[in-house]
Each structure stands twice: as structure tokens, then as C-alpha cells.
Design goal:
The complex is a heterotrimer of chains A (about 160), B (about 575) and C (about 120). Chain A is built from seven helices and four strands; from the N terminus they run ααααβααβββα. In chain A, a hairpin with a 2-residue loop joins strand 3 and strand 4. A five-stranded mixed β-sheet of chain B has the order 11-10-14-12-13, sandwiched between helices. In chain B, strands 2-1-3-4 form a four-stranded mixed β-sheet, covered by helices on one side. A four-stranded parallel β-sheet of chain B has the order 8-7-6-9, with helices on both faces. In chain B, helix 1 links the parallel strand 1 and strand 2. Chain B folds into five domains: about 90 residues, 3-Layer(aba) Sandwich (Glutaredoxin); about 210 residues, Rossmann fold, CATH 3.40.50; about 80 residues, Ubiquitin-like (UB roll) (Roll); about 90 residues, de novo design (two linked rop proteins) (Up-down Bundle), CATH 1.20.1440; about 55 residues, Alpha-Beta Plaits (2-Layer Sandwich), CATH 3.30.70. By secondary structure, chain B is of the alpha/beta class. The chains are: A alpha+beta (about 160), B alpha/beta (about 575), C alpha+beta (about 120). The interface between A and B is large, with 35 and 46 residues. The structure holds flavin mononucleotide, iron/sulfur cluster and FE2/S2 (inorganic) cluster.
Amino acid sequence: MCSTSTTTSPEISTLVEKWRGKKGSLIMVLHELQNHYGYVPRDVSLQLSQQLDIPLARIYEVITFYNYFKLDPPGKYTIAICLGTACYLKGAPDLVDEVKNLLDIGEGQTSKDGLFHLDVVRCLGCCGLAPVLSVNGQIYGKVKRSEVMGILSKYKKED
Amino acid sequence: MEKPIIFIKDTSLTGDSSREIQTQLLKVAREKGIEDLQVIRVADLGIYDKGVALKICSLDIIYVNVKLSDAEKIIQTTIKEGTPIEDLLLENQAMQTRIVLRNCGIVDPESIDDYISRSGYASVGKCLFDMTPETVIEEMKKSGLRGRGGAGFPTWMKWNLARGSFGDEKYVICNADEGDPGAYMDRSVLEGDPHSVIEGMIIAGYAIGASKGFAYIRAEYPLAIERVQKAIDQAYEKGLLGKDILGSKFSFDLEIRLGAGAFVCGEETALIASIEGKRGTPKPRPPYPSDRGLWDKPTIINNVETLANIAVIFQKGAEWFATIGTDKSKGTKVFAVTGKVKNSGLVEIAMGTPLRDIVFQISGGCFVPENKMIAVQTGGPSGGVIPEKNFDTPVSYEHLIELGSIMGSGGMIVMDEDDCLVDISKFYLKFCVDESCGKCAPCRIGGYQMLAILEKITAGKGTLEDITSIKRIAQGMQKASLCALGQTAPNPVMSTLRYFESEYLDHIEKKKCRAGKCTKLLKFTIVPEKCKKCRLCVTNCPVNAISGDREKGYTIDQEKCIKCGRCFDVCKFEAIARA
Amino acid sequence: MVQLTRDDLKKVQPKIKAGQQYVKVGMSTCGIAAGAQEVFELFTKEIKQHDLNVVVTKTGCLGMCHAEPLVEVSVEGLPSVIYGRVNGEVAHRIIEEHVCGKRLVNDHIFDLPIRR
Ligand SMILES: Cc1cc2nc3c(=O)[nH]c(=O)nc-3n(C[C@H](O)[C@H](O)[C@H](O)COP(=O)(O)O)c2cc1C
Ligand code: SF4
Ligand code: FES
């Protein structure tokens, strides 16, 4: 095992205890970590590897396979635009364009001020309200291109 | 005594004369001494394009094409005397039949008492105390229930195989990964009636001899996860999960495992790998999960909707269940109808209902009334299109396959003349390419190549040979891919080629996209006769491609134009032509 | 924990007893996205203010996602109906006109044929 001197934080120990002995718990543990930190920091993975006695490569293998897990800290507000079929047909690509233009970022990137992160996702399950986007989980339905600016400025103001 | 109530709605596409008739009905009623009649304009009666429609609530009948002059007769004959007027009656209305969604929108999903009071968990009682696992499976066989997750495999057969396999431990998995983008039937059931799924899993566990179950739910559904977890906790609380359920000798534990945004994890062997905490890559079958599944133990995987059907089968009997549907497809199917329909939402219909009824009657037809509907796509990225001319086909496993599509898990995307089928096929294929796990070459490379060809075609650079290549690649993928993701990825393309080859040819030969969706084929020009020289387009063009002056007029530099369509959108005088 | 037996199941009572007046708000993801949470709170508040004998509960998706938020209202003397596109103003009208005044509200009822 590698000899990094990172000390284990109490959260990680509690988490590991909760899932210890349960088979196949790695993904569940990663979910809890991402919920806590907003992403999976490298040193946390390292601690996890030591605590659970799983090689770091095994952990990274899993993190990188699943789209849901992030390795970099997201912006303060994550904008998730749905590009599921229903939203695609109702003009979601225009919303993506608009956000890209307004914030000067690409998919999966964070704006320079660290405020917004743009994700493109598949179906948020509100296809009846297509096109749909969400900001930190708050869902906006039947969004028009012209409304994007207003939604974003709401969060800018709050900041 | 309930007050007499009439619902009124003008269902024609143009104009609204419901207010006039509403006033007239009230006036006549007052003249005839009926003071407490309520005539209420409603937002929707589930009837479209049949003039003014009335629902007489007390008699539960519907009149259509009602004229102002009918008011007198309606009040006298129907309201006063209580007799229907034959000439106005609506003939057979397309109906939804709700089995899976029986409790959705009725019970409080966070209250187990609500569920139990609607005969919930009675089927668990019946199975545990009155039936053996064998008779449970026998009953499932009689019901004819087939999997709702896509493939349509008979559920009893899957259970029977797992029952027959040897294992000191067996598992039941609920597949709630709902990967098809644009479909959300399973989410609604999990959020609206989570106990129905849990009950189905307990019965499945009893039938195959499993004492442990997992609900694999996609992480993108936080509310569903929360409600299912609550439901599981409540069921433990009442002794409906855990040791000695209902005081019987049968024990069953259930826990949630989360997906993490990988479509391929909907595939059985990939899902198992994911629950084991590994990368979700499929494995060759056999061995089938019913033989060696989760941790190499016999395992069954059933879809949410399949499981939600089970309690009803034992409550009302397999014979009853088998009376609903067609010969080979029993029961109902829930569809998430989205796209260009008026009412997008969930629709549960008895198998065998014609597609036309779903699209035009239940879902109200086209979103933009003047537009023509061209096709419906079922089965998501693994499915295909059904053109308008085949809309009279009954919806069932066998009929949809005949048309080159599949039942799928329940996504139903309706497309109208503003949609380009080549573009949609490209969209689905891109989805599969993005989601391919990359384990096997036919899918990883074939998909990528086919997508490149479609990109070429939609950019106006396609040739006729490209169509041949697409067909060749498709064959390779269908035959040689390891899992169904790769095997079915070419389906949307193949099926649009089958029905709409001319659209492909338009893109290739005429460099034209009928719907104007393939932006690279578009050309924006200014129509001098209509242009009022307001300069709105000039200021809105993001790349300054429009130049000129008030004297000479304005032109669009085709080299600079990025086809974003801003000018087309902002022009108030329709002076921008898009071709 | 209580260990229910098979017979106990038959004795369990629903949250809303027969004859009880109620307002059910559809609160699945799509409903909440369309504003069902505010509508739910508004109903709860107004019913308390008016001191009405009406239970407000949440329920799952009714399937008419295009018309969210959806609310089912059942009061004595009137058939139970489903209202769609309910916002604050409509919710207020439902309380005033439907629940208190026993008159259905125009233009928001969605009455779709469903066999159960
Ligand atoms: C790529 C792929 C994705 C799938 N996604 C799902 C899904 O999201 N939900 C589901 O229930 N079945 C899905 N399936 C089908 C399942 O593998 C499996 O057939 C199904 O869960 C069996 O349940 P059933 O017999 O009750 O239908 C998918 C299959 C493949 C190949
Ligand atoms: S067909 Fe595609 S998704 Fe399936 S195993 Fe092969 S590469 Fe992976
Ligand atoms: S396709 Fe966008 S929410 Fe389903």
C-alpha cells in the first residue's frame, strides 16, 4: 500500500463503518461522498482505498465509468439541461446554446467566476414539461430560450 | 341529492362557442325552474375535434357536436326527465385502463396504511398462506404476464428457471434504472405507489425461494429514492419485510442500490455488475442470471412495471388478468407519451388498443393543431418508428415487432412534420454511442462509424453508397455485439430507412431537410420585397454576417453564416427566407 | 415494530375515511417542478384560516403531466373533480368558490375517461 500520510477524516470513517461488511458497497459509498463534497476528491478516494482495503485503481475505475461521479469540484450552481428525447424535440439544444453563449462555457465546464457549472443530462423525468432544465435540483419546465437569462440572473443576484 | 352539473368544452380547433351555450343552458334551466344547475366550462374532457361537448355528470354521459338550438331539449329531456338524447351521444370513447397506475394519484405514497386499505399486501398474505411457490408460478403462467422492461420475456418462465436453479441464496432485483431518455413510467410508479413494487418483489422472492432483494434505482430520481426508502422502512415497521412476514415462515429483506448514470446498467448482466460495486459492463449470456446472477447466485431481474402488476394478478385472479389484452399480450401497458402531442403524460391502455386511439383520442392529437403527424417512435434507442399510415395497428408485443419496432419500456415519442427523421435517428444513435460501454468492437466501432456517416448525410455531404454502408454496419452490429445495447442500436436508423428512405435521399441528393432541422443544410436569405430595413437582424446576428445599408438593402454572407436562425426568429416581417 | 398478521391487514384504515372532505395535491417530480409544493402549502394555510373540515394530502402522479400542478377536490354535495394548472390564484378560487361556495371553478377541470 502506498504510504501517504493523509489522516482519515471522521466522516469517512463513519461512512465506511456504515457499509463495512456489506457486499458491493463501493458505489453506495461513492454516492454518499459525492453528496457530501459535491465531487469525489482525490485524497478522499485515497483514504477510502486504505480504509476499505481496495486498490485506488479499482475506485477510479468505477468513478470514471459512471457519468454521475465527478472528479472536479462543480460550480456553486449546477445547471443541468435535459437532452432526453422529449426535450430534444421541443428545443432543448437551443437552451444549451444559450447557456453556452451567456456564460461562455462548454458542457461539463465551470464558468470563470466559479458560479455556474453546465451539465447536459438525460431525462429528468418531467418530459411532460419539456424542455426542462434544473439549477441545483430546482426544476424549470417549458423553458424558452429567452427565459434562460432571467433564470440565471436570479442565482447571480442571490450570490 | 347531488346538484345537477354539466361540464362544457368546445373541442373544435377553431373558435370557442362554449360561453354562448353555457349561458343559454343556464337561461333555459332558469325558465324551467331549475335553479341549482351548474354549467361549468372545463379545460379538458378527453374529447377532441367534436364541436361543443357536454358531460352530464349525474348520468355520466357525453354529448358531442352540441348546437345552441339543442339547449332547450337537453334541459327538458335530459336534466328534467333524466333521459339521454341518442342523436347527441358520443359513441365509444377511447379509454385508459389503469392496473399498474391503479393507486397513483389516489393514495398518499408516503402512507402504508393508504396502500393496505386498498387491498395492499393482501396478495402477499394470499401467496404466503394459501399457495405454494409452485402454484404461485402456475398462476403467473395463467395470467400471461410478460416483462415490461423491453424484451417481453414471460415472467413466469423467468421465475420458474430461477426456482429450478440450485443456490443457497437467491436474489430478486427490481430494475428501476429507466434509461430510455424521454420515458418516466417507472418513476411515476415508484413515486406514486412504491408499495405495489415492494409487494411484487416479496411475491417474486417467495416464488423463487429468495430471501433478499435489491431495488436498483437511478440516481437521477432523488424523489423516487426517498419515497421507496420510506416505503421500505414502513414495511419493516409493520412486519411486511424482514423476518417471518405476516407471521409466516417466509423472510425477505430489501434494500436500495443506486445507479450512477450509465444507460448500459439497465442490461441485466451490467446491472448485476453494478450492484456488485463494479463497472457496469455486460457479460456474455449464458450463464443467464436465473442460473448464475448476483454474486453467482440465481437471480431474477424484473422491471418496475412488471412488478407493479403482480399484486393485482393475485388479488383479482389470473383469469381476470388474462381477459385484458390480446392473445399473446396480456394486461395493460403504460406509455409516457411525449413529443408533439397536445397532452403529454402517462397513458395506460389495455394491450391491443390501436395506436391512433392513444395519439389522437387520449393524447389529443398534434400540439400544433395545423400540423400533420408523421410518425411515432417506441422503444427509445432500441426501438423504431411507426409511420402514420400504420397507426391503426393494435399495440402489442407481436404487432409492434411486425412493424420493425418494439414495445420497449414505454417511451412513445410523437413526431410531426417539423421533425426530421434523419436527425432523430442520429440523436438516438448518438445516445447509444455515448452510452456504449466499449467492451466489444462491433458496438464501439460500428456505432461510431455509423454516426460519422449520419453526420455526413445531415451536413449535405452524403452519397448513395453511404446508405449501403449503413446497412452493412448495422448487420455487423446486430449479429456480433455482445449485449442488446449494441445489437439494437441500429434499429432507429434501420426503421427510418425502411419507412422514410426518401428523407435520407432528400438529404443526400437534393441537400434538403424537409423539416429544416439539419441546420447545415439550411440557407438563410433576405427577401428584398418584404424587408422593411429595420436592421433588427443585423444587430442580432452573432457573427455579423449581415451587411448592407438602407439604400441597397441587406444581404447575408453565406460564408460567415453559422445557420443559427436568430435573424429568422427576430424578423417581424417574415423577410428572412429559410430553405 | 408491530408484526401485522394477515387479518390485521383488513382492519387498516385509509388516511382519508369515507365521507371525509379532501384536497389531494399531485406531488411527484413533475408536479413539484410545476409548483405543487407552493400549492400544497397554500391549501394547508387557507383551510386552516377558514377553519374548514377538509384534509389536505399529497399523492402521486395522475398522469396528466402537461396540466401540472394537479389537484383533486372532493367536498360534500359535489362530485370529486380534478383541477389542472393550479397556481396560487386558482387555489384561492377553489377554496372560495368550490369548497366554501359549493360551485365548481370554470376553465380548470380536467375530466379524462379512465377505467380502474
Ligand atoms: C442497454 C439496455 C438497457 C436497458 N434498460 C432497462 C431499463 O432501464 N429498465 C428496465 O426495466 N429494463 C431495461 N432493460 C431490459 C433489462 O435488461 C431486462 O430485460 C428487464 O429488466 C427484465 O425485466 P422484465 O422481464 O420485467 O421486463 C435494458 C436492456 C438493455 C440491453
Ligand atoms: S454491445 Fe456495446 S454496450 Fe454492449 S457490451 Fe458491447 S460495447 Fe458494451
Ligand atoms: S426528456 Fe427531458 S425530462 Fe424527460
